[in-house]
Amino acid sequence: MSPRRNRPRGGGSSARRTGGAPDRYGLERTDEWRGEEWVVRQVAGQSAGKHYRCPGCDQEIPPGTAHVVAWQREGRVEDRRHWHRACWNARDRRSARLQRSRQAPRY
To answer: Where is this region: Disordered (predicted)?
Structure first.
């Protein structure tokens, strides 16, 4: 008996199937948010080698964690932000609250 195939048969890259553009770092797509176009790139866990701060939840994204990199289509390289996937998907439902530590004053 031959081993089971986990990959679909047939040629073609995953970029062609999902409609994204293949890139050195992963697949890119364009999302519309707040009337502007954003380029969104999925980053695999093994490709993430640094600590990042997610703007959606203000929590740290540790190295080795899969996440999303997003920036405005007309933006600069310095404007890229690293988001948790769930935070990027919930960005419209989140409010812009100030995150405080437990010992921070409330004023």
So the answer is: 1-29
pTM of the model: 0.61
Q: What residues have CB less than 8 Å from 84, skipping those under 6 apart? A: 54, 56, 57, 59, 61, 67, 68
- The pairing of beta strand 67-72 with beta strand 52-53: unpaired
44 is in which domain, residue-wise?
Answer: 15-89
96 inside domain: no
Contact 67, 83 (CB under 8 A): yes
Our count of domains for the chain comes to 1
Contact 66, 43 (CB under 8 A): yes
pLDDT tens digits along 15-61: 333 445 454 555 788 888 888 898 999 988 887 788 999 988 888 99
Using one digit for the tens of pLDDT, what is the confidence trace for 56-75?
Answer: 888 899 998 999 999 988 88
Return d(Cα 97, Cα 56) in angstroms, integer.
10
